[in-house]
């Protein structure tokens, strides 16, 4: 376990690693990751060797993807990624979608201060999701 969690902006040369992490998602959006340098922000959580072990992909106030490699979960990395992004947008109400059946992710986001804002019929290519929001306190 890392003693401190380091979060920093991703670099283009880390793209292959981000692709690998994205494959851990049940509903990835490769087209969003493809367009990240021009339309979004990617922050990475890195291990002691500076290798990305998790990332957050955001477009404006919407967190489109958040993933942490299983071996690095429960170390505060998801929280650190969200906090780092919220620090960049201090007045934002952050939003995200979670698949309706992914109760573990919903509970994780609730523990990070997100609230259920209702069901969305077509959040994941025709599949339902839950919209969750978090305001800066």
TrEMBL record:
Keywords attached to this entry: Acyltransferase, Transferase
SUPFAM superfamilies in the cross-refs: Acyl-CoA N-acyltransferases (Nat)
Q: Does the keyword field hold Electron transport?
A: no
Q: What Pfam families does this protein map onto?
A: Acetyltransf_10
Domain N-acetyltransferase, by residue range, is 5-137
So where does this one cross the membrane? none
EC class of the enzyme, as a word: transferase
Q: Which GO terms describe its molecular function?
A: acyltransferase activity
PROSITE patterns in UniProt: GNAT
Assigned EC number = 2.3.1.-
Q: What name has this protein been given in UniProt?
A: GNAT family N-acetyltransferase
Q: Which organism is it from?
A: Haloferax namakaokahaiae
């Amino acid at each position: 376990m890392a003693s401190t969690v380091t979060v920093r902006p991703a670099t283009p040369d880390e793209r292959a690693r981000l692709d690998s992490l994205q494959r851990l998602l049940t509903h990835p959006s490769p087209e969003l990751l493809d367009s990240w340098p021009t339309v979004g922000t990617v922050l990475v959580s890195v291990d002691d060797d500076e290798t990305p072990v998790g990332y957050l992909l955001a477009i404006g106030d919407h967190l489109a993807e958040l993933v942490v490699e299983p071996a690095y979960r429960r170390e505060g990395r998801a929280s650190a990624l969200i906090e780092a992004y919220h620090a960049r947008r201090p007045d934002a109400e952050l939003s995200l979608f979670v698949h309706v059946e992914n109760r573990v992710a919903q509970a994780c986001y609730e523990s990070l201060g997100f609230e259920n804002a209702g069901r969305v019929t077509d959040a994941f290519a025709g599949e339902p999701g839950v919209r969750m929001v978090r305001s800066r306190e």
